[in-house]
Amino acid sequence: xxxxxxxxxxxxxxxxxxxxxxxxxxxxxxxxxxxxxxxxxxxxxxxxxxxxxxxxxxxxxxxxxxxxxxxxxxxxxxxxxxxxxxxxxxxxxxxxxxxxxxxxxxxxxxxxxxxxxxxxxxxxxxxxxxxxxxxxxxxxxxxxxxxxxxxxxxxxxxxxxxxxxxxxxxxxxxxxxxxxxxxxxxxxxxxxxxxxxxxxxxxxxxxxxxxxxxxxxxxxxxxxxxxxxxxxxxxxxxxxxxxxxxxxxxxxxxxxxxxxxxxxxxxxxxxxxxxxxxxxxxxxxxxxxxxxxxxxxxxxxxxxxxxxxxxxxxxxxxxxxxxxxxxxxxxxxxxxxxxxxxxxxxxxxxxxxxxxxxxxxxxxxxxxxxxxxxxxxxxxxxxxxxxxxxxxxxxxxxxxxxxxxxxxxxxxxxxxxxxxxxxxxxxxxxxxxxx
Length: 435
Description:
This protein has helices at residues 34-40, 82-93, 100-117, 135-146, 162-182, 200-213, 226-235, 239-245, 263-272, 280-285, 293-299, 314-329, 337-344, 346-351, 384-391, 418-433, and strands at residues 2-7, 16-17, 19-24, 27-33, 47-56, 58-63, 119-126, 149-154, 186-188, 190-191, 217-221, 253-257, 275-278, 303-305, 368-372, 397-402, 405-408. By secondary structure, it is of the alpha/beta class. It has 2 domains: 2-57 and 358-403, Urease, subunit C, domain 1 (Roll), CATH 2.30.40; 58-351, TIM Barrel (Alpha-Beta Barrel). β1 (2-7) and β2 form a beta hairpin. The longest helix has 21 residues, at 162-182. It starts with a strand and ends with a helix.
């Protein structure tokens, strides 16, 4: 029985003071006022957290775990334009150069950073065409050992060849099948890159393979101006309009980025129930623009949050979503803290098809975090979400639990050599940079 000063059990409800959460066999058995639960669960182990907040674990709906290896890479050969950057720099020098050993090292550090940052569930897309086959199994072995709830996919693309693209689709299909048979916290999703690296037939096949397995499909969508212009030139329609023409929009699709989209496209996303993953910080880094996330939310698009493997401090990602759109729209009331918390929890769970996480209530999986509340001013129910969003960081996350298992307790991750993990990541990055 976890007894806290405050509990955020749902993004739509006010935080509750002096509440507790009872966990049994990996699920939440009860949640409510501490005094009531103490009388009902007299034999439960008491974990007292008098100056902490209990909240649902964060859900990162778009990660590139391998991306950490590119941090600090020499940029003297990096072109400025979008297409030359991909074709002459990012693809050949990063993604095409990845090996199983590099992927394992990056995954290890990503899991460490997620636990420290309060992320309990995540979706990752790996693009490493020369690491096929079995690249996803390399990631999965690490994620299973950490105990995180992970959905993994390979970003299939025809940019090298049709044969390599097919290998990517089959990497996803086989991994989805094996994970479903094995059960557990790690599962798969279908994924391809974009309309400008994949043909219409290839995209249709990805959706068909996903439908056969009852899983979602992920794709990057209009991250910058290039893809909508490409679709307009090739198909006579912008990207979202073309997906609507193909009849592929809907709850089965997770569209990442959605930066360069217009009002008509927002309506198409909303009417179809397509899920969107918003990455405010990486959109800035690549110069893609400001995604109209508040406009999408207002229209009814379920928008979640992702780190994009760029800045993986999830508090920073939340702060980016909270602050940037206020400046863009010159409106301090846009993107209130409650909305950002919902994007980071419930919307994230819905986007990934996880119906048992994202809220704290009886019967849900016991995926939760606790956050230290030594805030600059007194935390109250009316200001708690704003204060925690603005003033907290991974250093303030004290406990992380997934499916009832503590991955971190009192700030300690047991049996983990953090210095060794960081050293191996640096070694893998150095190898990548000097190939």
